[in-house]
């Protein structure tokens, strides 16, 4: 999960911050220009207050307040609810874009709701593992009960055969 760039458009200008460290040095300029064109196109076609544009492996999360637009470019894994929460903060104070880009790469540090969801997901994984272990334990117990019954049956048969063989050797 990663935030790649944040753009803030007013009526006449725009500001942006970006982190293209994952792109090779020689391709960064081309990627930056392409991303800027996608964002400008998204802002021009946006009629709603909130919209998400998908350009795999990126997504553009757009938020409009009056005539100002804030756009966050993230990978497809970054949760959009957290992106909208951050874009609201950008509208309140556009100068925090650089801080958001550097400090909010992990959505669990930003949103309490997302942190709780992540903890619930982790708990669900653990619960599923525990249920699988219980089912396996139950089948193991069933196997032990079956082996115990087989052993009990075999010991009764052994007792009967031994008793039968010992009858002929009674000393009086």
In brief:
The chain is an alpha+beta fold and 172 residues long. The chain has helices spanning 28-45, 80-92, 97-103, 112-167; strands at residues 3-9, 14-18, 50-55, 58-65, 68-75.
Please provide a written account of the structure.
- The mean pLDDT is 83.
- The chain is an alpha+beta fold and 172 residues long.
- The chain has 2 domains: 3-110, 2-Layer Sandwich (Beta-Lactamase); 112-172.
- It has helices at residues 28-45, 80-92, 97-103, 112-167; strands at 3-9, 14-18, 50-55, 58-65, 68-75.
Q: Please report which band the strand proportion falls in: under 5%, 5-15%, 15-25%, 25-35%, 35-45% or over 45%.
A: 15-25%
Number of helical segments with 4 or more residues: 4
Helix content: 40-55%
Cα radius of gyration in angstroms: 33 Å
State the shape: rod-shaped
Q: How many individual β-strands?
A: 5
SSE string, helix = H, strand = E? EEHEEEHHH
List the helices and strands and how they pair.
Blueprint: E1 3-9, E2 14-18, H1 28-45, E3 50-55, E4 58-65, E5 68-75, H2 80-92, H3 97-103, H4 112-167
Structural features:
five-stranded antiparallel β-sheet, alpha+beta, Beta-Lactamase, 4 helices, 172 residues, rod-shaped, 2 domains, single chain
């Amino acid at each position: 999960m990663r935030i790649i760039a944040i753009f803030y458009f007013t009526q006449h200008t725009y500001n942006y911050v970006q982190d293209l460290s994952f792109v090779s040095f020689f391709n960064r300029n081309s990627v930056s220009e392409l991303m800027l064109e996608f964002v400008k196109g998204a802002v021009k076609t946006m009629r709603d207050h909130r919209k998400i544009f998908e350009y795999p492996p990126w997504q553009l999360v757009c938020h409009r307040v009056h005539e100002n637009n804030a756009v966050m470019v993230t990978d497809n894994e970054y949760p959009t609810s957290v992106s909208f929460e951050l874009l609201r903060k950008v509208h309140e104070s556009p100068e925090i874009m650089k801080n958001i880009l550097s400090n909010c790469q992990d959505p669990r540090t930003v949103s309490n709701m997302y942190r709780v969801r992540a903890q619930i997901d982790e708990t669900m994984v653990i619960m599923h593992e525990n249920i699988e272990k219980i089912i396996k334990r139950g089948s193991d117990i069933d196997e032990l009960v079956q082996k115990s019954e087989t052993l009990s049956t075999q010991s009764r048969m052994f007792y009967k055969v031994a008793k039968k063989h010992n009858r002929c050797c009674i000393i009086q």
